[in-house]
ATP-dependent RNA helicase (Asparagus officinalis), 607 residues
Amino acid sequence: MREHQKSNSMEEKNKTKSKISNATQAEIFASCSFNDLGLHPNLCQHLQEKMGFQVPTQIQAQAIPVVIEGKDVLVNAATGTGKTIVYLAPIVHLLQAYDQRIQRSDGTFALVLVPTRELCMQVYEILQKLLHRFHWIVPGYIMGGENRGKEKARLRKGISILVATPGRLLDHLKNTSSFVYTNLRWMVFDEADRILELGFGKELEEILEFLGSKKTDSTNKEDIGKKPGNISRQNLLLSATLNEKVNHLANISLIKPVMIGLDEKKVSSDLPIPSIRKFSTTESDGDEESESIQVLASHSTDNYNLPTRLIQKYAKVPCGSRLVVLFSILKTLFEKEVSQKIVVFLSTCDAVDFHYFLLSEFRWSPNPQTDINQKQTFIKCKTFRLHGNMDHDDRRATFQGFKSEKSALLLCTDVAARGLDIPKVTCIIQYDSPGEASEYVHRVGRTARLGEKGEALLFLQPIEIDYLHDLQQHGVSLKEYPVEKVLDSFPLHGQRHHKNLATIEMHPWVVFLQRALEGFIAAEAKMKTLAKNAFCSWVRAYTAHKGDLKRIFMVKKLHLGHVARSFGLKDQPSLVGRSFQMQAKKRKKDQRQVKPSKRRKFSTKAK
Ligand SMILES: Nc1ncnc2c1ncn2[C@@H]1O[C@H](COP(=O)(O)OP(=O)(O)OP(=O)(O)O)[C@@H](O)[C@H]1O
């Protein structure tokens, strides 16, 4: 039965591949085989037959041979291009090749650091699949939210390849004496920039201190194939957006790194592998480490690589109409296609909760006179939520649940922005803007993966429209989404739409639905509380936009009454404003007492 399911999913993968045009195929996939890259035949066969990967992706073809050679590597490639296999396949290949089989008592050989729990589980699951034929290599994970005692027991038994989140790893390095890492040979930083953005910089430095960051020159080929002993360390950094934040980490962890994918535009997809490597990898050949830092810094303002078949749009929506427009677009999208998988990004955990419960509980009919029992949910699809304040098991269930649904909606914070590989996501809606352009790139990267089609929609208020220039500076350009056309498409009971209305706020459909939502929220104490909490945390997150972005996302320009409307609140804005001011005062007082760490600052925005 399981075999049957597996072959079905592989057939699906192959069908998807054949739907992709030849041009896209050549852009994404290399014209060589996994065997050509020097990987063990058993591993290649497994990749092909059991995982359905017929040929390597371009980035895999470029990077895998370099990783096998034992060099430190910095990989920069678009989202969804198969970076996980870039590091897992060579590590498995090299570990299985030891003269004497490694044993659990040898401890950990490879450590993969990831920023979130979901990504930790995802990488672990791929690793498990990859190790199918190499049962003596043991995969494992440790991460926040898990039972420390059980993790200790697993570490004591020995984990050959360990996937971890930084905080929990440091915890075990400090407190688990049975954790053997003397044979550590590989350190991988997946989504390196995000680990730093989340404020884990200090933890990373401590981790590197524990493990001894730059031990010896990692290009010592004699080590390869030997049973571990006095071995050198190979460090790998990967992300779709490498920027100056990574400089420091590169500085303290990489030796003469080979840069892969930093100059992708020059790469011709028809070139055989050796030539691709020649053009697209940059080896910092000087003895001075500062050379590699310069390469990174000069790329910080470069264009980002975006998925080839991604359609990007923005919706210009006045603040007070945001909620209605979001609901209307979601309804339109779900009614247009039988299977839609949509991810909506919001800025705070409270905002996720509010919208989740509102979408789940709000009953509606175009005719206001309809009996309550005949009213239906506004959007007929399964809705999930994901944020960092959720219980660990709920987070896991959401992730798995959304993954397995054919048609569903996920409301989430940026906890889902990085690395998550969810099949068949058709549309990304950034209801709250992402902040730095790199975050935009990662959020939209949850769709249009590996050459598939996908759409992305960014909500902007008229006062925020300059954000488009910021994106443009990174080569990201968006077309306007026809908001009014969508609003016009909704029938109004006993009313006609009037054309040429001055503003979206006056649109009869907007007025009608806003009233219905406000009525529903006002009547439900739970919803009212959720809305108020969401309002307060949303404004706080808005004030937390960093550096240059403050000139675009100016809290002073916000009309708090309109913000309240966007949470379905008809209370006097001053009332809501006062409660916010009280919270702000309290926060200021707390801040005076405890000087905030960088980490806390980040946690204002969603986790
Ligand atoms: N050679 C291949 N052939 C077909 N599918 C592949 C291949 N390599 C990876 N994949 C699939 O491509 C998808 C994207 O891979 P992965 O998540 O590693 O991308 P990524 O580049 O790390 O993305 P992100 O930057 O978002 O983390 C996964 O579903 C993976 O199973």
User: Anything to note?
Assistant: The chain is about 45% helix and 10% strand. The two ends are 39 Å apart (CA to CA). The first strand starts at residue 73 and ends at 76. The chain has a mean pLDDT of 83.
